[in-house]
Amino acid sequence: MKVFPAVDILGGRCVQLVQGKKDCRTEYGAPLDCAKRWIDEGADRLHIVNLDGAFGSAGSNAELIRELVRETGAYVQLGGGIRSVEDASGWLDTGVDRVILGTLATEHPEAVTEVSDLFGKERVVAGVDARGGQVVVKGWENSAGDYIEWAKRFEEAGAGALLFTNVDVEGLQKGIDPVPVERLVKATSLPVIVAGGISSPEDVVKIKKIGADGIVLGSALYSGRISLGAAMEVSK
């Protein structure tokens, strides 16, 4: 199972939010320094989120992200502020390995198909951010329908993988809720990457047993509740 340390960028700094709220954030320094730390500890993949983009400033942090891609040499999946096929294409053309389409995928599922056709489905991840079983978009403010139904639509549209974020537990560092993860893994043939609530090696083991393809480590990794080494060891 793949392990993706998160590097979330807001205002040019590496941060972690609680429940996606800008006013509930902790800063951890320069994004490149954080990324290099995880690479030095054994990571070969990064999950980068342009939070400024997610909050409406699509061009923010562009040079920082390009620097991360250049300097780390890691496999990079990128989300946040990708609002068009052109945005997605621009990132894929400049070295990002795959893009995560969230609000765009929900509002315009045909964009998933178009990016998949242009670059190959292995470079397209559809974001399934869910609260109470409902997909939430636009900074997790608006509900858009059942998360299982959306996952199936994304699969039909040509996504190569799904990123499932359980908003109910995201950032709280209190452990995962395995039930919605299991439902999603059973409902689709696509690889599923899981984010939200992963706070211990036991959480990682649960997700692996369910059959997920990967995990994203965020708040608990930065706070020290879980180490990257421990997570990578039990994910093997």
UniProtKB/TrEMBL annotation:
Annotated InterPro entries: Aldolase_TIM, His_biosynth, HisA/PriA, HisA_bact_arch, Isoase_HisA-like, RibuloseP-bd_barrel
UniProt lineage: Archaea, Methanobacteriati, Methanobacteriota, Stenosarchaea group, Methanomicrobia
Similarity comment text for this entry: Belongs to the HisA/HisF family.
Enzyme active site: D8 (proton acceptor), D129 (proton donor)
UniProt catalytic activity: 1-(5-phospho-beta-D-ribosyl)-5-[(5-phospho-beta-D-ribosylamino)methylideneamino]imidazole-4-carboxamide = 5-[(5-phospho-1-deoxy-D-ribulos-1-ylimino)methylamino]-1-(5-phospho-beta-D-ribosyl)imidazole-4-carboxamide
A Gene Ontology biological process term: L-histidine biosynthetic process
Pathway, per record: Amino-acid biosynthesis; L-histidine biosynthesis; L-histidine from 5-phospho-alpha-D-ribose 1-diphosphate: step 4/9
Major location (coarse): cytoplasm
Keywords from the named record: Amino-acid biosynthesis, Cytoplasm, Histidine biosynthesis, Isomerase
HAMAP family xrefs: HisA
GO molecular function: 1-(5-phosphoribosyl)-5-[(5-phosphoribosylamino)methylideneamino]imidazole-4-carboxamide isomerase activity
Xref: Pfam families: His_biosynth
EC id: 5.3.1.16
SUPFAM superfamilies: Ribulose-phoshate binding barrel (SSF51366)
Top EC class for this record: isomerase
Any one Gene Ontology cellular component term annotated for this protein: cytoplasm
Protein name: 1-(5-phosphoribosyl)-5-[(5-phosphoribosylamino)methylideneamino] imidazole-4-carboxamide isomerase
Protein location: Cytoplasm
